[in-house]
Design a protein that fits this description.
The protein is α/β, with parallel strands linked by helices. About 35% of the residues lie in helices and about 20% in strands. Bound molecules: 1,3,4-trihydroxy-5-OXO-cyclohexanecarboxylic acid.
Length: about 150
Amino acid sequence: MRKMLILNGPNLNLLGLREPEIYGHRTLANVEALCVAHGERLGVSVRCVQSNHEGALVDEIHAARGTVDGVVLNAGAYTHSSIALHDAIAGTQVPVVELHLSNIHARESFRHQSFIAPVAIGMICGFGVRGYTLAMDALLSHLEGDR
Ligand code: DQA
C-alpha cells in the first residue's frame, strides 16, 4: 500500500479561526479527516503532521525518505522564506506536491515567490480545502508514472 504524508506548516493549526475569508471555515482536524477518507478511497495510507517549527518540518521531510512514497506539503509562510525546506526536499529527493489553500499569486507580492516550487513535482493553489485531495490525486498519478 502506498503511503503519503500530509505535512502542514505554521499557523495551519489555526484553520477555521484564521482569516476565514481567505482560508475558509474548516478546521485542521476537518482537513486531516478529509485526507484520511480520500486516502481510503485511493487505497493509500495517510499520515498527517502539522508543525509551526521550520526545523521540525525539515525533520519530517528527512524522515519521509524511504518511509513514505510522497508528501503533500503546505509549508505556509515558510514557502516564501525557507531555503532549509528547499534543501531538505532537494537533498532527500522525496516527491513533494506543493499545496496552498489560497491563490498565492493573486495575493501580496511577497507570497509570489516559493522556495518549494523549484524542487516540487508541481503546485496546486487557490482551490481551498479541496486542494488537498487534488494534490493527493496528483501525487498518486505522478507515483504511478502518468504523464
Ligand atoms: C498558505 C499561503 C501562505 O502564503 C500563507 O503564509 C499560509 C497559508 C495557503 O495555504 O494559502 O500560511 O500556504
